[in-house]
Amino acid sequence: MSILNSKFGLIYSQLKVWFGKKELEIPNIEILPGIFLVMPVSSNFDTNFRTNCIVIGTPGEEALIIDPSPFNDTEYKNFLSIIIRIGKTNSFKFSYIVITHSHGDHHKNAPRFAKELSIPLIMSQYTLERITKKKGINYFDGNVIHIVNDGDDINIGKGNFIKVYNIPGHDEGQIGLAPENMQWFIVGDLIESNRTVVIGGEEGNMTKYFHSLERVIALSPQWIIPSHGSPLKSVDFLVKTLTHRRERENQVKNLFLEGQTPEEIVKSIYRGTDKRLWPLALENVKAHLKKLKDEGSVKFE
Ligand SMILES: [Zn+2]
User: From the CA of 53, how far away is ligand 1's center (Å)?
Assistant: First the structure.
């Protein structure tokens, strides 16, 4: 009987594939009352790579959509249907799309999505400039864009506001969002719950990264909601990340003072790590060295 059942199951799922009805539901969950995570695939290079799109709203009132970034057409269509379903179920009036920072896995297809819903996009001035520099001046053609600054409030209905916080370091223009009662804090890529964040390139700055971690830790929100991975209770993980970064910085400093080049430092520290990750590790090492140089702890040209 069980064999028959499983055979039937196999044939049934195969039929669904043949007739194009294979379920392609994108993972989604309500993590706190009125806060939903929808997790589309957001990278062309790794089909396991997902970005949390966060929907926040008050039933019957305004709602925000943060970092919608489905990577291709099929993912976009499935994503759109889930957002519409969440909107209907909760009687949300979608008012804005927020882009936390300039990296592609946070805004792929967001301009198209904003036009489809006829709502404006919100981002920092740096994020707008950085994206149009990378993607071209026409990237946001047909979109309405609102620029926000640190301390600005965004209305989410029934007298509820969430505040904008500048949290640079991973990306110069990155913004976080949190309500006044600090029940949660949306941190973008300040941390990822299952990977180390890269700090480097033109938009990265390790000194600012440390300050941003310290800033959110001091605010002590109950929940941290990152863009990749699951939400985290309390700021413990941020404290751990900061401690780890300080230790790493000490290691980098000592090896540099022993005469090692950044490339040699990567080899020393990340010996046991997948070599494909070394270029990213090199970014982090260079960012630590720049911070140490700015503080006067090391000298180099
Ligand atoms: Zn990023």
Answer: 13
Place of tokens 């990264």: 209
DSSP-assigned states of every residue in 191-203? -BTTBPPP--TTT
Which pTM was predicted? 0.89
Are the CB atoms for 115 and 121 separated by under 8 Å?
Answer: no
Query: Rounded to 5 degrees, what angle do the CA atoms 93, 228, 211 make?
Result: 100
pLDDT over 90 (residue 9): no
Phi-psi region of 61 (alpha: psi -120 to 50; beta: other; left: phi over 0): beta
Q: What's the CA-to-centroid distance between 5 and ligand 1, angstroms?
A: 45
- CATH number for the domain formed by residue range(s) 11-234: 3.60.15.10
Kindly report, residue by residue over 147-171, the tens digit of the pLDDT: 999 999 999 888 889 999 999 999 9
Residues 6 or more apart whose CB falls under 8 angstroms from that of 45 comprise none
CA distance 263 to 267: 6
Calculate how far, in angstroms, residue 298's C-alpha sits from the geometric centre of ligand 1.
Answer: 28
